[in-house]
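Subject: sequence -> structure tokens, single chain

Hey, anyone have a minute? Need the predicted structure for the following. Not urgent.
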Amino acid sequence: MSIIQTCNVKYSYDRNKTILKNVSTEFETGKIYAILGPSGCGKTTLLSLLGGLDSPAEGQVLFQGEDIGQKGLAWHRKNNVAFIFQNYNLIDYMTPAENVALTSKLPPLPILARLGLTKEEAKRNVLKLSGGQQQRVAIARALASDVGILLADEPTGNLDEDTAAGITNILKECAHQMNKCVIIATHSHDLAKQADVVMRLRKGELQITDVFNAND
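Reply:
Had a minute. Here:
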């Protein structure tokens, strides 16, 4: 069933640069979506609107049929969505375990271990970790939260091939076994091939596409 949708969403940085043009689409629980498109096409902007980090110039973003502005964007961010940011957005004076504990009452070490961090690494300051390790912490933090939607901006961008494949499998499990809606903005066709639905954002328009024929 549809959990979040956009209705005629338009977004512009200024009058001369329209990023999204009347985007109308819906996303269902239990599925993983990949949004493909070149840099600067608006993939991150679309995720920000879905997550309540910004508001469209025109149109609506609906969560379970209700405009997310009704209860407030902050309420939507806290209760409905979890983010995996491209720049991690970790609290830099905390450890990985402490970062994950902020979003979940469950013990943080098991999920960090599942994402490849040792117990010792989980207790270091995050600034002492590599970029790839920090990205895994950001993913663990999102996966630990009890929300229905995961929004991921290039979640495998700084990871090696094997780790990226493992992360993709975990995201698929979140959709297919935990019944979450997983929406990923990515350049990776390898990741997109694992999605249930592949979309292309080009010149402000969003369309369902065939990843095997998609060219950035």
